[in-house]
Write a structure and sequence with these properties.
The chain has about 110 residues and is mainly α. The chain has three helices and no strands.
Length: about 110
């Protein structure tokens, strides 16, 4: 035998308020959360200036390395072997200074953020 079909009756009273549909054009409202605005992308020049102010020895070391290399190559081309050798040794010193400055900057940045 087939069971008699009874219509489904909702137990909600007609006076209760329905939640509004999700509006996808607006971000959701989360209680206790205030969203931050997105940070502005910094340009290459702004980032370079910020990084140079944080650790000024790195650009100084890079300029010293490039300068010693250029003058050393110039002296080599002119046949001044003694001066060229001294400038290449100076370049090695400047490169070492730059590496130490980078490592020092990394450690100070890591310690500063904690």
């Amino acid at each position: 035998m087939a069971a008699a079909a009874t219509p489904f009756v909702s137990e909600q009273s007609p006076t209760t308020t329905q939640q509004p549909m999700l509006d996808i054009s607006k971000p959701p409202v989360i209680e206790g959360f205030t969203p931050l605005s997105r940070p502005r992308e910094e340009t290459f020049q702004e980032k370079f200036m910020r990084k140079s102010k944080e650790n000024p020895f790195v650009p100084i070391g890079c300029l010293g390395t490039a300068g010693a290399l250029m003058y050393g190559l110039r002296a080599f081309k002119q046949g001044k072997t003694r001066q060229s050798q001294l400038l290449m040794r100076g370049r090695i010193f400047a490169q070492g200074f730059t590496v130490v400055a980078v490592i020092f900057g990394v450690f100070t940045t890591a310690l500063r953020k904690d």
